[in-house]
Amino acid sequence: MAVSAIAPVSGLGSLGAISPINSIGPLSPSAKASPVNSVLPSSFSNALRGVQDSIDTASKLSQQLATGELTDIHEFSVASSKAQLGVQLTVAMRNQLLSAFQEVMRTQL
Hints:
Layout: H1 35-39, H2 42-67, H3 73-106
Helix pairs in contact: 2-3
């Protein structure tokens, strides 16, 4: 079994300066025009928008379920599970990025 080479990660050179975490704020429709999104690679930004959209869908379906407008509870169950998994993945990615950043900062030159 042959081992293939790992492809280099592209697009990291265009990151530039990243704003502090506390200035990003929560994801909302107004955050789509945030200057931070112009710094992030488009695939990461699109993934965050996708997670936010799944959270919004689950929230809307929970309101419909509470008011009786939604008759299929499975639709809500799937949407809420999708949103939960998206948030868990996003938090795990953030933790890994912070860990990698801290490791780089500990590196002595």
